[in-house]
Structure formats: structure tokens, C-alpha cells
Amino acid sequence: MGVNTLSKSERLNSKIAIEKLFSGSAKSFSLFPLRVVFMQTAKKEGAAGASLLISVPKKRFKRAVKRNRIKRQIREAYRKNKHPLLNLLEEKEQNLMIAVIYLSNELISSAEVEEKLNSLLVRIAEKIA
């Protein structure tokens, strides 16, 4: 697997897992304009350390072009900053489901998205450590 990739196995796409994540037992916190919902799961063979779901509400951005831009920014920021978190999960032999939800009505720069997401990942790492 490449160093900074986001493979299919790292994406959260199981309806059952997503429902479990949003059922209320998961931890969450916000750092405007992002909100993160995460839940630790037992280590499964062949599963990536963390699986990611990105949500940009249609209510806030009617145009798919803008929603996709934000998703790309979040994916890129995660791809660059995921390694410390993945290393911690590897040590603890845990898996993690993460949902990132975009809260703002405004588009923001990629640098700002990256900075916010990085601090969210650091906070997640602190909470599971």
C-alpha cells in the first residue's frame, strides 16, 4: 500500500457500520467547520486501521461541484495526516470508524481544512490513547 493513499478498504461504506456509528454510542466533537464522530471497534483481519466517511450536507451546498470540492479537501487532508493515528491504532490493535461532517455554509481554503482536520485527528488520538 502506498504511503499517502486512501484505498477502498479505508473508506467506511457498510450501511450497518454507518448506522452503528450514528446510533448514539459513538463519541463526537466539533472544531468549526468540521464535526467528527468516531467509534472504536475490535481489530478485524484485513481491515484498515481506520475507516473514513465524509459527509457534506446537500442542505448547505445545493451544487454537487461544491460538495465534491469539500470532500476532496477533507480526503486530501486526512490522507496527509492519518499516519500518527494509524500507528497508534496498530499498537493498540484497534480499528476506528470516523465520520467527518462539514458544518459551514461557506467554502474554506484547503490549508484551513487540513489544519482543522489535523487537530481533530490529534484529539481523537488523545481520546483513544
Description:
The protein has 129 residues and is an alpha+beta fold. It has a single domain (8-128), classed as Ribosomal Protein S5, domain 2. Helix content is 42%, strand content 22%. It is built from 4 helices and 4 strands, in the order αβββααβα. The chain has helices spanning 15-21, 64-81, 83-92, 110-128; strands at 27-31, 34-42, 50-55, 94-102. The chain has a 4-stranded mixed sheet with strand order 1-2-4-3, with helices on both faces. Helix 2 packs across helix 4.
Q: How many separate domains? A: 1
Helix content: 40-55%
Measured distance between first and last alpha carbons: 25 Å
CATH architecture label name? 2-Layer Sandwich
Mean pLDDT across residues: 92
Largest sheet: 4 strands, mixed
Order of strands across the widest beta sheet? Answer: 1-2-4-3
Question: What is the chain-wise order of helices and strands?
Answer: HEEEHHEH
The portion of residues forming beta strands comes to: 15-25%
Low-confidence segments, given as residue ranges, are none
Q: Please tell me how large the radius of gyration is.
A: 14 Å
What gross morphology would you assign?
globular
User: What is the CATH level 1 assignment?
Assistant: Alpha Beta
> Which secondary-structure class do the elements indicate?
alpha+beta
Tally of DSSP β-strands: 4
CATH topology: Ribosomal Protein S5, domain 2
Number of helices: 4
